[in-house]
Design goal:
Elements: H1 5-14, E1 21-24, H2 31-43, E2 46-51, H3 57-62, H4 69-79, E3 89-94, H5 100-112, E4 117-122, H6 125-130, E5 141-144, H7 150-156, H8 160-171, H9 180-192, H10 196-205, H11 208-228, H12 232-250, H13 267-279, E6 283-288, E7 302-310, H14 313-320, H15 332-352, E8 359-362, E9 376-383, E10 386-392, H16 401-410, E11 415-419, E12 424-426, E13 429-433, H17 440-445
Helix pairs in contact: 1-2, 9-14, 10-11, 11-12, 11-14, 12-13, 12-14
C-alpha cells in the first residue's frame, strides 16, 4: 500500500546532509512496513532489521557496552550474516525506545559514521523520554507517520488516477469531477479507519467481521501497553480516560469534562494519563483559542479548556462499541454521533497534512467578566501567517451561525466548511466535501484565485 511519507524517505536518502532518521508514530500505523518493505526493499540492496521488542539478551547487551558505530555494525553483520555496506544497506532499529542506549547510539552514528543509512522507529518514544531516556538532540532527522489518510485509503482501493485528476482540476482552476466512488469510499473509511492492518484486510476480503476483529486486537494491544509500561493505578486511570473518549463526544458540548471519566475524577489525578495517551499518539488534544485573529495561535491557547479526539475514526468507532452500519447515517445513533465522527475525520486528515497545531474557538472568551457565548468554531489553524476557521458538518445541512459570527468578528481571508455538500466557493466561504478533504492544501494555495469567474464553483 502506497504511503505519502515514502517521498520524504527518498529525499532523506538522497540528502547530502542527512542524519540518522527517527520515524515516530503510534503503534500499528505502519512504520515497519513503510521502512522495511516500501522503502528498504525497493531502494536498497540489503536491509538489516533489528526489532528491539524481540531482541535477545546478547543484542541488548551489545548496547550496554561501547556503542561506537563500527563495533555495532560489525556485530550486526555477523549476527544477521549480512555484509553491511555504507552504500547499499539500510539499518533499521525498530521500537528503539525499548533500549535507551540504542537511541543514544544515533548520536555517534551522526558524528562518526554519517555515511551509513540508519533509521529507527519509536511508538512509545515520548513516554520513554518522560521516563528519563536521553534524546540525541540535533543528531537525528525526525518524521511522524499517522494512520492512512483518506487519500491513501483511496489509493489502496485503486483510485490513484481519480485522486490525481482531482488534484489537477484544482491546479488548473476547474471544478473536479465528483464521482460516487469518493462518497462510497468515504463511508467505508469512517467505518474501517486508516490503520493499515484493517485497511489491507478490508481490501483483501471485504469482510467487515474480520476487520472488526483486527480493530479489537489493536485496541487490546494498546491496553496491554497501559499495564506494561505503568503501575496498576496509572494503568487503570489511562484505561478509564481512554474508554471515556467516545463519551466525551456524546455531550452536546464536546469540551472535555473530567467527570465523564468517573464521577470522582479530578484533573490532577489524570494529568499523567493525559500525557501518556498523547505521548503514545492515541489521542489529540485541541485547546481553546480565545482570539481568532492573533498569531502565533499557540501563544494565546488556553491549556485548561480543551477537547480530545482519537487517533483514528475506525478505532474510535470500535472503542465506542458502535456497529459498522452506523456510518450509513440512517438511524438515531448517527444523528447523535455523526458530527463527532466527521470532526474526528477532519482532524485526522489535518494532522496527516502537517497541521499539528489545531485549536477551537468560542465567542466572548477573551472578554473579562463576560460569560462565554454559545458560538463555537470546530477548528482554528494557521498556515503561512494566515488563520483559517474550519467548521465541520456531517451532512448537507450546513447552517453555520457560529462560523458566521466568527467571520463578522474577524473577517478572515478565507473560511472553510467541510460537509457533504458539493465543492463551492461563495464570498470568502469555501465548502469542501468531506470526501475531497485531500484537496485542502491545493485549495488554500489557490485562495487568491477562488473568486475569479471560472473558479467560483457556484452553479
Amino acid at each position: 500500500m502506497r504511503r505519502k511519507l515514502l517521498e520524504q524517505l527518498i529525499e532523506w536518502k538522497e540528502s547530502k546532509k542527512r542524519l540518522p532518521l527517527l520515524l515516530e508514530g503510534a503503534r500499528q500505523v505502519g512504520k515497519t512496513y513503510l521502512l522495511k518493505t516500501l522503502f528498504g526493499e525497493k531502494y536498497f540492496e540489503k536491509v538489516v532489521h533489528v526489532n528491539f521488542e524481540k531482541a535477545d539478551s546478547e543484542l541488548i547487551n551489545l548496547f550496554e557496552g561501547n556503542i561506537q558505530p563500527q563495533r555495532i555494525i560489525d556485530y550486526l553483520a555477523l549476527k544477521f550474516n549480512a555484509p553491511i555496506s555504507q552504500d547499499n544497506t539500510l539499518i533499521i532499529f525498530d521500537e528503539i525506545q525499548e533500549v535507551p542506549r540504542a537511541l543514544t547510539s544515533l548520536k555517534y552514528f551522526a558524528e562518526d559514521a554519517p555515511e551509513y543509512y540508519v533509521v529507527a522507529t519509536g511508538s512509545l518514544l515520548g513516554i520513554a523520554l518522560h521516563s528519563g531516556t536521553s534524546f540525541p538532540v540535533g543528531k537525528v532527522n525526525r518524521l511522524r507517520l499517522y494512520p492512512m489518510d483518506f487519500e491513501e485509503f483511496c489509493w489502496a482501493n485503486n483510485m490513484e488516477e481519480q485522486t490525481e485528476e482531482a488534484h489537477n482540476a484544482i491546479e488548473s482552476l476547474k471544478r473536479p469531477l465528483i464521482t460516487s466512488g469518493f462518497k462510497d469510499l468515504f463511508q467505508q473509511y469512517l467505518a474501517i479507519g486508516g490503520m493499515p492492518a484493517a485497511v489491507s484486510t478490508w481490501i483483501a476480503s471485504k469482510n467487515i467481521d474480520i476487520v472488526e476483529m483486527i480493530l479489537k486486537n489493536i485496541l487490546s494491544d494498546y491496553k496491554d501497553d497501559f499495564s506494561k509500561h505503568t503501575t496498576n493505578t496509572e494503568s487503570r486511570r489511562i484505561a478509564n480516560l481512554w474508554q471515556s473518549v467516545p463519551r466525551q463526544f456524546a455531550k452536546e458540548n464536546h469540551k472535555f469534562v473530567y467527570k465523564t471519566i468517573e464521577p470522582s475524577a479530578r484533573g490532577r489525578d489524570y494529568a499523567f494519563s493525559f500525557d501518556w495517551l498523547i505521548d503514545a499518539g492515541l489521542i489529540y488534544k485541541v485547546n481553546l483559542i480565545p482570539h481568532g485573529d492573533k498569531l502565533p495561535l499557540s501563544f494565546y491557547a488556553d491549556e485548561s479548556d480543551f477537547k480530545i479526539y482519537g487517533l483514528d475514526v475506525g478505532m474510535l468507532r470500535q472503542l465506542a462499541g458502535l456497529p459498522s452500519s452506523v456510518v450509513i447515517g440512517d438511524d438515531n445513533i448517527w444523528s447523535n454521533f455523526g458530527g463527532a465522527f466527521a470532526e474526528n475525520f477532519v482532524l485526522q486528515q489535518l494532522r496527516s497534512m502537517g497541521f499539528t497545531e489545531t485549536y477551537y474557538w468560542v465567542n466572548n472568551t477573551n472578554i473579562p467578566n463576560q460569560p462565554k457565548g454559545k458560538s463555537e468554531v470546530d477548528f482554528i489553524i494557521s498556515d503561512e501567517n494566515t488563520i483559517y476557521p474550519i467548521e465541520v458538518k456531517s451532512g448537507e445541512q450546513v447552517k453555520s451561525p457560529s462560523l458566521r459570527i466568527y467571520r463578522q468578528k474577524y473577517n478572515p481571508e478565507l473560511s472553510i466548511r467541510f460537509s457533504l455538500k458539493a465543492l463551492e466557493y461563495d464570498e470568502g466561504l469555501l465548502n469542501i466535501p468531506l470526501y475531497y478533504s485531500f484537496l485542502f492544501r491545493d485549495l488554500i494555495r489557490q485562495k487568491d484565485k477562488l473568486s475569479v469567474s471560472e473558479f467560483t464553483f457556484k452553479k
